[in-house]
Amino acid sequence: MSDTQHRAGSGNSRKRSPGFPAGYKSTPVPNPLLSSLLEDINDLDELKVTLRTIWLLHQRRLFPASIRAEDLLSDRTTAAMLHASGAQLEERVSKGLEKATRRGTLLAVQGDAGEMLFFLNSDAVVRAVDSSFPGWNRDTPSGTGETYPAPTDTGPQPSVFADYEHNIGTLTPAVADTLRDALDTYPEQWIREAITTAARANARSWNYVAAVLRGWADEGRQNGKPGSDPDQTRSDEYLERYLAAQRARGNR
Question: Whose C-alpha in 52, 88, 144, 230 is 20 to 30 A from the C-alpha of 107?
Fold first, then answer.
């Protein structure tokens, strides 16, 4: 057997993915990481560690969510994707986190117990970190005296969390948890447009946003609007659903 045939046979022996099953859940990834930042990242370990960190942050169901290096080191997928263990795994995870922090993709903040906490570097998270860690220094987050610049602004859209805070109200941990659940159910763009619809109707409540989303899910959407009525947002109908939900909860 030739070397070419051997390599082809080895590749074919790998287990083929069955694809994504019905009902699979998704993890939001910032658009710049899939475009401009992806063009700049040339270290595969940095990219893998960054993506796995984003997944772990999403599992936290908290806002702002953070992880420690130990969370990656104890994660089976991290060890498998880096094909490493022990000291080698620790070194590669550490370097991946360091590069992601230097690039500005992640924030590194020293926690109260002295451990290093890693956050996604977004405007909404930075504001929350400012409140939780009033003494932290964005320019020297690791305490080493080295500068970690903020990510280059290439015009990314604000997150769902920032949209909610800007248009609806305070982003409490409970609201952040509700938004994360919604991201598992609806496309991110739907949620952001539903938040805008609620703001325009001056119904600044998550219940109203949820009523809009349920309506779109039931009726379908065409060109970004409810499928059964593509020419208007039908705010009156959404308001009635919102009021019905309030009455059901005993709020009159």
Answer: 88
